[in-house]
Amino acid sequence: PLTRHGTESGGGPPGCPLVKLPFVLSSNYFFFLSFFFPILSTSPHLSHLYLSEQIRGHHVAQLDPLGILEADLDSFVPSDLITTIDKLGFYGLDESDLDRSFQLPPTTFIGGENTTLPLREIIRRLEISYCGHIGVEFMFINNVDQCQWIRQKFETPGIICYKLNSFMFRFEDFLARKWSSEKRFGLEGCEVLIPALKTIIDKSSSAGIDSVIMGMPHRGRLNVLANVIRKDLDQIFCQFDPKLEAADEGSGDVKYHLGMYHERINRETDKNITLSLMANPSHLEAVDPVVQGKAKAEQFYRGDTQGKKVMSILMHGDAAFAGQGVVYETFHLSELPSYTTHGTIHVVVNNQIGFTTDPRVARSSPYPTDVARVVNAPIFHVNADDPEAVMYVCRVAAEWRTTFNKDVVIDLVCYRRFGHNEMDEPMFTQPLMYKQIRRQEHVLKKYSDKLIAEGVVTLQEFEEEVAKYDKICEEAYTSSKDEKILHIRHWLDSPWPDFFTAEGEPKSMSCVPTGLEEEVLQHIGQTASSVPLEDFKIHPGVSRILRGRADLVKNRQMDWALGEYMAFGSLLKDGIHVRLSGQDVERGTFSHRHHVLHDQEVDKRTCVPMNHLWDNQAPYTVCNSSLSEYGVLGFELGFAMASPNALILWEAQFGDFHNTAQCIIDQFISSGQAKWVRNNGIVLLLPHGMEGMGPEHSSARPERFLQMSKDDPDHFPEFSGDFEVQQLYDCNWIVILLPFRKPLIIFTPKSLLRHPDARSSFDDLVKGTKFKRLIPDQGPANQTPDQVKRVIFCTGKVYYELAKERKQQNLEREIAIIRLEQISPFPFDLARAEVEKYTNAELVWCQEEHKNMGYYDYVRPRFLTVVANKKPVWYVGRDPAAAPATGNKSTHLNELRRFMDTAFNLSAFQGKDL
């Protein structure tokens, strides 16, 4: 009979014989039942019992090692689901039927070779399959073959039996002895995670996988690095020594946030396997899309279109898995064509607590893993104090991923032996749980005793194994005292060996020319203006756009969209892969790009002209994303980590929308190199401009990016050699084709996409040209600088409004307008040259953004450094405000008129001193 274990919080007395009844089925379930579970001639209700066990058995499975909580947060068992044996009448049966034999339906595997079994044995075997230390959730999957596959894995008699070939390591005990007062975020209470991961990797390796990308939170990271990745122990131990300083650049990060890349032999398969554990901040699930992006990139560059060589594993905490929205966003990328990694194995370390928060107030779903049901991923709950059950589940999960290339979730129901960290006191908030934990025998002790009792090993063999591992740890501890051993670069999770030297320096510090031959520009422009496929009917509106491009090319001009085409196309010619993703990027939010053309008469027939430029070009990937910023930007960041020889771009629908991806920007993009010596060339395209569209569609918040820029506002840099390149190398994010990789933030235009003056000549892109960090005034003011009365520095769209106003007031000789194109790092050298050119002019900084936003706070101290505080620099722009823009068009125009009047009022200047 089924038995529900007793709990301290209720739920029935221990040892009470129980049988589970099916839930009430609606009439529209009849066809489903008749298809999956043929009605038995001897008992029409027996198949209902069988179905009930499959669907709801996990609710009564013995999953909690402590025996005090219910994994599904519900200790009450409704009477319609479970009853005592003497109430078998619900099924049209009674106690006398327990010894009767029944014909088994063809969809069950519990009989093995038997086609009939006594009812008592049927109930026992169903209990073993679905109500023991493993709880299986899979009946929501709407695929017959997948459901049958899972049934066979868990119903076949005797199949859930798997002996560990090695002992779980004593790594955590060693750390606790040596650094008892240090935060380690140890794995105590879920030590089984280590052999679980090894089992997944071994099984996947035997199926052909040779590269595994992993992400995980801080708990257990050091153990995973040591015993799964096999990071040198002395490198881990030296992180505990506060006296050692890293010999590399960067601030570094705490030891339980660091990543690692390592290639080794898999001892089970004798095959090479590469393991990469991604560095991750305390924002626990932020690494999820980053891992997926990197895995997708490796698959892409290796031509692994089915995920047979490269796979990803994500580890989670129970509270974070249920609570953080990026988990949901990442799941929804799992089967999108341009984002799928062909199945991820998710392992949840279910401590049944989040810091100090009880799960009953941390989530509304029964299980923390319920979010995975959104993509029909099977969920295997397992008692983490049963190592054999855990290992079996891991093998099944690896086989599932290999067979179906879909996500799968393993829920390791365990406990946390200590507090949130080793210095924390958990008895403050969970006294009953931690009283039980203090009585709980270690899983290694329980399992070793079991193996010794079964004669699998002897006590002497076990003790020798423990002593052997302790000796290895002691030797590594001694070695870790070497002051030369600590290098941040030893913790790279994405090394680029062909791009950097062994010391991590660029192999070159010179910028390659970026100008192009005239014929290359013409060829790209003509392709951008045409449809390479025959019999392909495009929309009349797109035809007009292509004709407009053709006219621009004929006149040797380009607008923003065509300039983007030139940049991408020239990189593709040089073998550089270009990937552009985001919401609506194929067409472009403002209908300016049209990189994907759609046949108006054939469904799903598309054409990407960019992929028809050259015979041996690199591929161009342009893909609309899900309506996600956090998840998709994290994904593209991970994609950019895989190779330095690619241009990976993410475009926000409006620049404002990067707000919901701020975690990726703050924790990975801005500070990733400083913390993890991680170079990355990710590009953010953020539409920005005050155009009367209201506060939600105006500002890409440049002030936030500038605030995080690391150049010193009070120091005028003095470099030998190439000033520009050295300044870019020292910053944390920037622009242009370089021998190193930095993130690039571009505040892209909206109205300027079609502005007649916002165009460039081919002369600006031909051989000998390069990116202009600062664009000087090129009109009459530049010809007679001694006559100029005012120099206005600005950036972005406001330049065109200033230029128009200057022309209308006939002030082109009296006022010079200079544009900062590279805002950070600040072009000190070029700004000083411009200031010294206009010796008689007063200086103004003008911006359309409010004074407490935009660029003001960034440029203010830097301009004062440029002029060495010898003359004032005036501010012209909108006053401070709480919202980035007004929602009233009339107010917007009035604000614009006011600061234009201020900028050009030479006789009664009312600007504000910087």
UniProtKB/TrEMBL annotation:
This is 2-oxoglutarate dehydrogenase-like, mitochondrial. NCBIfam families: 2oxo_dh_E1 (TIGR00239), PRK09404.1 (NF006914), PRK12270.1 (NF008907). InterPro entries: 2oxoglutarate_DH_E1 (IPR011603), DH_E1 (IPR001017), KGD_C_sf (IPR042179), ODO-1/KGD_C (IPR031717), THDP-binding (IPR029061), Transketolase-like_Pyr-bd (IPR005475). It comes from the Eukaryota. The gene is OGDHL. It catalyses: N(6)-[(R)-lipoyl]-L-lysyl-[protein] + 2-oxoglutarate + H(+) = N(6)-[(R)-S(8)-succinyldihydrolipoyl]-L-lysyl-[protein] + CO2. One of its GO terms (molecular function) is thiamine pyrophosphate binding. GO terms for cellular component: mitochondrial matrix; oxoglutarate dehydrogenase complex. It is an enzyme of class 1 (oxidoreductase). It is found in: Mitochondrion matrix.
